[in-house]
């Protein structure tokens, strides 16, 4: 019989799929690593497993313990999924700007959520940061993963994402492109691919980070942007700035336009940071030739963004236009 012993065993080993339409005019091969195939729907399942395994090994998480983390998104889902399978409770602290759908996903997995006001200073005792610190201190047996500084985040990508890409491209990958949020993906995957390619006597794999315009990685000073999960206004410890050979800055408009195209033209319903990463990957691929193989990581699926990027009213409200190309029923009827 072919089955997994638990859903946790299905994390990782995500497929590569060639991009065929959005790559028009490009001679390099561009392959997307589609992380929504993870059971929790994102690359964050990988870090959740490694972080919880390490906390158990180091005695930071004991039977019946509680995981406390300020997160509203994919990391929460990954942690909730692994935690329930191992018998731990989860408490997530979220700012009140996080929408109902995202809250409901976390509670659906059995996590508890604590909602904090967005409009207070970080040092305010009601803030997102203060509340999660207090809960982690006061709940008996609490463990706070802290994805921004936990070395097991990047290590999970060093041990899984990197080797999968090297294996599946049979060592032919020449460029790895990924968005940067906590920096865990680029640090772990990038470091592995650099080391293995240099060791194999191949041309060293080039590592490219992609960042929303305004974020610190591409030289911004924290100006606001709408794409979620990537970019920072500070330098997290999970990010090793020596790994990237190059950083590409992408605007929200470019990222969202490509996100819509990936759904319509490649059949990939993915999140806004995926569109952003693909814009960066195509900028790189345009400079390359037919022997080059660019792998771009797509961190999550698009279902969490149906009310935003995939909603015409929302896009119009923020001043984004819709891509040309799809005929309306009126056009079809002449
Ligand atoms: N995209 C999305 C949607 C994410 O949730 C994250 C994680 N914050 C990233 C990209 C970036 O990954 P990393 O934190 O490993 O840099």
TrEMBL record:
Enzyme class: lyase
The enzyme's E.C. designation: 4.2.1.22
Pathway connected to this protein: Amino-acid biosynthesis; L-cysteine biosynthesis; L-cysteine from L-homocysteine and L-serine: step 1/2
Keyword ATP-binding belongs to the record: no
Keyword Electron transport tagged: no
GO MF annotation: an example: transferase activity, transferring alkyl or aryl (other than methyl) groups
Names of the cofactor(s): pyridoxal 5'-phosphate
GO terms (BP aspect): cysteine biosynthetic process from serine; cysteine biosynthetic process via cystathionine
Catalysed reactions, semicolon-separated: L-homocysteine + L-serine = L,L-cystathionine + H2O
One cellular component term from this protein's GO annotations in UniProt: cytoplasm
Keywords annotated in UniProt: CBS domain, Lyase, Pyridoxal phosphate
Family: Belongs to the cysteine synthase/cystathionine beta-synthase family.
Name this polypeptide is given: Cystathionine beta-synthase
Organism: Microcella daejeonensis
Lineage of source species: Bacteria, Bacillati, Actinomycetota, Actinomycetes, Micrococcales
Shown residues within the full chain: 1 to 334 of 482
């Amino acid at each position: 019989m072919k089955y997994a012993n638990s859903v946790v065993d299905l994390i990782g080993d995500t497929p590569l799929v060639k991009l065929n339409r959005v790559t028009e005019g490009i001679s390099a091969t561009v392959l997307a690593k589609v992380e929504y195939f993870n059971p929790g729907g994102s690359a964050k399942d990988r870090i959740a497993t490694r972080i919880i395994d390490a906390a158990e090994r180091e005695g930071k998480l004991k039977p019946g313990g509680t995981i406390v983390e300020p997160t509203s998104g994919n990391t929460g889902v990954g942690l909730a999924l692994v935690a329930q399978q191992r018998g731990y409770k989860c408490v997530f602290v979220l700012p009140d700007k996080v929408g109902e759908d995202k809250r409901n996903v976390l509670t659906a997995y059995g996590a508890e959520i604590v909602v904090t006001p967005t409009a207070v200073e970080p040092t305010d005792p009601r803030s997102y940061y203060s509340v999660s610190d207090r809960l982690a201190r006061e709940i008996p047996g609490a463990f706070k993963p802290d994805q921004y500084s936990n070395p097991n985040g990047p290590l999970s990508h060093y041990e899984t994402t990197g080797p999968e890409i090297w294996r599946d491209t049979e060592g032919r990958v020449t460029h790895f492109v990924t968005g940067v949020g906590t920096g865990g993906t680029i640090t772990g995957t990038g470091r592995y691919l650099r080391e293995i390619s240099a060791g194999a006597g191949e041309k060293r794999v080039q590592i490219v980070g992609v960042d929303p315009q305004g974020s610190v990685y591409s030289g911004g000073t924290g100006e606001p942007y709408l794409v979620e999960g990537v970019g920072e206004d500070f330098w997290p410890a999970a990010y090793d700035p020596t790994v990237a050979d190059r950083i590409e800055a992408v605007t929200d408009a470019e990222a969202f336009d490509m996100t819509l195209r990936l759904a319509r033209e490649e059949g990939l319903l993915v999140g806004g940071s995926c569109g952003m990463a693909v814009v960066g990957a195509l900028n790189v691929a345009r400079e390359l030739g037919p022997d080059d193989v660019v792998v771009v990581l797509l961190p999550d699926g698009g279902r969490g963004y149906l009310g935003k990027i995939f909603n015409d009213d929302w896009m119009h409200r923020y001043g984004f236009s819709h891509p040309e190309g799809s005929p309306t029923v009126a056009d079809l009827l002449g």
